[in-house]
Model the fold of this input.
Amino acid sequence: MLRLSSLIYYCVGIIATMLLVACSEPKRYNIGVSQCQNDKWHEKMNIEMSHEAAFLGHINLHIRSAQSSSRQQCMDIDSFISEGVDLLIVSPNEVDGVTAAVERAKKANIPVIIVDRKIDRDLGDVFIGMDNYKTGFMAGQYAAAELEGKGLVVEITGLSKSSPAINRHKGFAEALADHPDIIYNTIIDGAWSGEVAARRLDSLMAQGLRPDLVFAHNDRMAGDAAEVAGKYGAKTLFIGIDALPGKGLGVDKVKNGRLKATIINPTAGDRIIRVADSLLSGQKVNKITLLESTLIDQSNVQLLEDQQSQIAQEENKMAQLGEKINAFDKRYNSQRIYLIVCILAFVLLGVMFMFFLKAYRAGLRNNARLVLQARRLEQQRNQLALLTKDTDDTDDAFSVQLREVMEEGLGDPDFGVKEMATKMNMARSQLFRKIKAAYGYTPADFLRAARLKRGAEMLSHTKMTVAEVAFAVGFSSPAYFSKCYRAYFGQNPRSVSKEENKAGSEE
Done:
């Protein structure tokens, strides 16, 4: 039964292991995303990253926004480091604001992808973003063409210490440098905020400034600044950057004429996640990935809007399809686990049945053996009783003489059939025939039975040990005495001795 229990535990262990293997998922990666802001542009990037991560199925995204605070962004990055994320995606608030935090991540052997904005040291494993210098240069060329080479231009930059603001300004200024009739000496730090840009432009226009064109580093600042210009009745042209789809956003503002133009700033959230997955899986990736920009004005805004609308519909369908796939996947996994559990349960029951059947058959064989032993023991006891009765009840001269001779030699280990025949004044063959005819035993069996009977009496009525009794009744070996005793009485002589001694001590 112990072996059966061990085997059952072993089977249960195997089943549990199989269940764990069946239910286990491939390795999942935890990616921390530190965004400098939570504006519409970064929100779109977050949505794209989340969709791509869900599509891949083995990436968990943890997104935090620093709300334009470099200090908060450093705290977010340090928190991700302490949590042990597998990879960091960082959109820096300022060029030098998060450098130390990124360096700490690298010391912790965490890969870092820098997106949209650069830092002052080349610490990231990968940079993904558009060429902001090229974008600023594109805006400057477009402005010069719209103004036909002359006019007053104002530039509203993003946060002055952020890399996009620095590089967009450089590109824009260089494009206007070839047009001496364009007056370009007013630069406003809008800090990426439409409210801040509008307030600062309003202050200048209240002092009489009437620009012919305003270039803002994002559509949000351009749109809010356009409302300020409208308040003053100025016919100012506005150029922005981002070209986000949706009502009231960049593309819509170009379509309804509030902005003269905008430049696409790809969010590329899906591409960022694919690069992150490749980096985590050990594949080779490009150190720098520059995203292409396109200028949007009345000539192509309708085409872009149609494309964006179609893309939005497809993304919505894919999201719904993804939800259905996830539901089907959960149902499939639960049914698969249920099926595996049922199969393994049947296997376990089958194994248990086989071993219980084996144990049952072994029990039947043991019972049959015990019954056979009991029958043999009963026969031996009957024979011994017959021997005892015959010895006690036979009163002829032969039996009396035989009893006397056996009493004299019973305790002598050298007393055997030869000595018995000599004492009886008979030949051994004659003694054999007489004892066999009278008792049905050979002389040797008759002598052994008499010694065993005497030994049983001594064990039952004295405190002698088994060895002492064996020698007392003529056995030269206690082991042989015990063997013969078990054969006749079906029990060990030691147990008889212990029971009798225990009974005596209790009395």
In short: Residues 394-506 form a domain with the Arc Repressor Mutant, subunit A fold (CATH 1.10.10.60). The first strand starts at residue 29 and ends at 35. The chain has 18 helices and twelve strands. The two ends are 40 Å apart (CA to CA).
